[in-house]
Design brief:
The chain has about 140 residues and is α+β, with helices and mostly antiparallel strands. It has a domain of about 90 residues. The strands form two sheets. It has a five-stranded antiparallel sheet with strand order 2-1-3-4-5, with no helix packed on it. Strand 3 and strand 4 form a beta hairpin. The longest helix is centred in the first third of the chain and has 25 residues.
Length: about 140
């Protein structure tokens, strides 16, 4: 009788441990609520010598688009391949082709909205599509 009682208690204890483990597996991970949408900062971090893709429009264009991937800028034109020549606190000087240089801001009003894992790092001062095809979203 005593053996049956001990065996029953051990079985109940085992079941409660298994059930609590299963309940934890179904629980949602802790973190911000799913309703919170990722809002990018609009800053791009570059180093001298980096290859980037930039807006190559006329000087009157103020879209200031910079990306790590080729594509089109926010104003619809094809991004030009460029090399980072000089960095200042808030601006970057890039060389497009063999002679042309252009100064761009390192912060945009809009940035790629594909999330924290984004590797295109597109920023712009105009809304539109990122070089990866995702919509640009307003930054913080």
């Amino acid at each position: 009788m005593r053996f049956k009682l001990m065996s029953l208690m051990l079985t109940l204890l085992s079941l409660s441990v298994i059930m609590s483990f299963c309940a934890k597996q179904d629980a949602k991970p802790e973190g911000p609520p799913e309703s919170k949408q990722y809002v990018p900062t609009g800053k791009i971090s570059l180093n001298k010598g980096d290859t980037v893709f930039v807006c190559n429009c006329k000087k009157s264009c103020k879209c200031n688009t910079i990306s790590r991937k080729p594509g089109n800028c926010a104003c619809g034109n094809k991004l030009a391949k460029a090399k980072v020549v000089k960095l200042k606190k808030n601006t970057v000087l890039v060389k497009i082709g063999k002679k042309k240089t252009k100064s761009l801001k390192l912060k945009g009003k809009y940035a790629c909205g594909c999330g924290k894992s984004c590797d295109c790092n597109t920023i712009s001062n105009k809304p539109g599509k990122c070089s990866c095809g995702t919509d640009l979203v307003e930054t913080k």
